[in-house]
Each structure stands twice: as C-alpha cells, then as structure tokens.
Amino acid sequence: MSVTQNQQLQLAQATAQVLDKAYPTPRPAMPETLWHYTSNATLLKILGSSSLWATHVSCVNDTTEVQHLFDLIFERLQRYSHISGAAPIIALLSSFGNKDHCATSDWYISSFCTDGDDLNLWRAYTGQNGGVAIGFNSENLLSLALKGNRAVLSPSKIPETYLLPVIYDRATKTRLVSNLMREIRKLCIRHSGIGINVASTNYWAVVEEQIAVVAPLIKHTAFESEKEWRLMIKFGCRSLDSLAFLARPTTITRHLPLSFGNLFQNAPALISEIKIGPGQHQTITKTSVEALLNSKGYTGINVTCSSIPFRPL
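Request: output the structure for the sequence above.
Response:
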C-alpha cells in the first residue's frame, strides 16, 4: 500500500507539534528588525529585482548544518535500536553517508540574525571588503512569505511558513530530536499496521521531508553567537518557472525569489535600514547606496555605516 496524502499530513502535523514544543514557553519574541548580511553585488540584485531569494535546504553553503541533525539522530537511535519499530529507520538512516541530504525536499530557507553590526558576521557573509547588512521588519518579512504561499495543503492544516530562531542549546536539541524520532516511530508502527511498507523508499521520502523541516533550525553550539533566525517556506504547488537557478563551480543551486514589489509599495515597510560594512570606502558606498535607493524609487530607508574599525589588508 502506498503512502496516502492523509499519512503525509499526519507526519507533517507531528513535525509541527514537535517544533511548537521545542522552544521555551513563552516562545522567544520576534525581534522588530532582523538583519541579512550579504555582498554589495547581492544588494544590487535584491533592490533591482525587488525580491529576496530563499535557498533550497540542500543548497546551503555549509553542508554540516543538515549533517548535524543526522549526527544527533544517530546518537539518539543507538539508545533504543532494540525497540520494535526502530529497525527500519536505523537501516534507512545508515544509508545516508554517501548521499546529499534533503535533495528532493520542498523547503527553502533564508537566514537572518538579530545583530546588525557584528564583526564575525561581516567577515563570514559579506566578502573580503565591504558588504552590507539589510535590516528587515520581521513582521512584514513573515507577511511577505505568507502572502506568497500557494502550497497544496491548506495552511490551516499544517504550517508551511516558519520564522523561528535557530536552536544551539545542546539540551534543547536533544529534546527536539528525541521528540521527533518518537513521533516518527509511533507513526511508523501505526502505518505498518495498516499494510504500509515503512521501509520503502517512498515512505522514507516522506519521513525525510519532515526531517528537512527541522534540519535548518538546529546548528552546532559553536555558531551560537550568530543569534540566527530562519525564514522557511514550502514550495508547494508553485509553478517551476517561479524558481531561479545559479551555476556554482561544482553544482547548480535552486532558489525561490520572494517578490516584494507588489506587496509593499512602500519599501520601508519591509526594509528599514541598510548598514554599510567596515571597509576602505564606506563613505563612497553609503552615498552610492543612497543614490541607488532613490533611483529605484525607495524612500525613507536609513543608510548608516558600521561602527567597527576594521579594514581587511
């Protein structure tokens, strides 16, 4: 018996419940402004196209992000590998060493952080000299993703857009993984009882889709200082021609442009500030960005310079 849409929905609902319980109560308040560090070239693309690109979960630069979740899953599974219903999951997870995780996932992500002037973030995400941090109004950022949502299943049934803080704390990650695997195991047992082959490739593809929802939201403790938030969007039934692609040295990556041109006629409702990164030509860059904003019809966006006295040599 093949996996039905109802069984897929059960797995998705289980994942949503696990995520809902992963954070402290009350959940951390969403900051008024979330910052996106990027290069000068990408800023030109964002303002020129009036769109922000989300990246497919399998195409992020740091592949250890997804692997980190699977490492935690392996660790957890060893504790109850003898329990009935765990064997099919262990066998399937064991085959993951030589494959690209979540390559067929339906989820796209975009990363932000709470600090708009952090030297480590400037160094990591804006290039060797310069770059910018774009300050987005977080509520309108979430609205942008929600208004562009055209997924197959109704958002009233399962969340298809998340804007959540990344989890770094070891205890919280352990609890999340434990709850996720417990819910998946329960559903495996239930579904196998009605004749579904829970060890099949098709069934695992559905399970993997749910792991792909969780994977971008946990990172190694070493990255805790980034204080990252992630916007996650399900592709759903959007037309394939809504995707954008980039040629990389070793692959082709997939991206989902989120157009804000028609949704926010007043750009400052979405972008509140652009901060020029530390570098050799801050004043020139600031003046150029202000002229660029005016040329594109964006008004009221504050352009400032980083206060960090850093100059790459």
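Residues 5-305 form one domain.
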